[in-house]
């Protein structure tokens, strides 16, 4: 469902864009439709307390931006949360 890299403008050191197009059109457990990368970012925050920035804010709709400038433990927990949030979608 997700793919790292490939956003317009490329990736910067410590920041990567992740393609979330596979989540568009899917539904959260509460029945809300994920229509945009902004909806997906909101789903991550609300369901798993993972904060990312929607790609449209950087001219890259269909992606979200994740910063790797944090500890390994926090990054691991965030990645696990993102995976669970994706698995929650139908």
UniProtKB/TrEMBL annotation:
**Which GO MF term does the entry hold, naming one?**
pyridoxal phosphate binding
Q: Which domain of life is it from?
A: Bacteria
Where's the Aminotransferase class I/classII large domain? 30-82
**InterPro entries assigned:** Aminotransferase_I/II_large, PyrdxlP-dep_Trfase, PyrdxlP-dep_Trfase_small
Q: Which Gene3D superfamilies match?
A: Aspartate Aminotransferase, domain 1
Q: Return the protein name.
A: Aminotransferase class I/classII large domain-containing protein
Q: Which Pfam families match?
A: Aminotran_1_2
Query: From what organism does this protein derive?
Result: Streptomyces rapamycinicus (strain ATCC 29253 / DSM 41530 / NRRL 5491 / AYB-994) (Streptomyces hygroscopicus (strain ATCC 29253))
């Amino acid at each position: 469902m997700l793919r790292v890299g490939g956003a317009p403008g490329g990736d910067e050191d410590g920041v990567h864009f992740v393609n979330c197009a596979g989540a568009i059109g899917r539904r959260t457990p509460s029945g809300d439709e994920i229509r945009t990368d902004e909806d997906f970012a909101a789903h991550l925050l609300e369901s798993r307390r993972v904060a990312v920035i929607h790609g449209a804010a950087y001219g890259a709709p269909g992606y979200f931006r994740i910063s790797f400038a944090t500890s390994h433990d926090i990054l691991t927990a965030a990645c696990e949360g993102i995976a669970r949030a994706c698995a929650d979608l139908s």
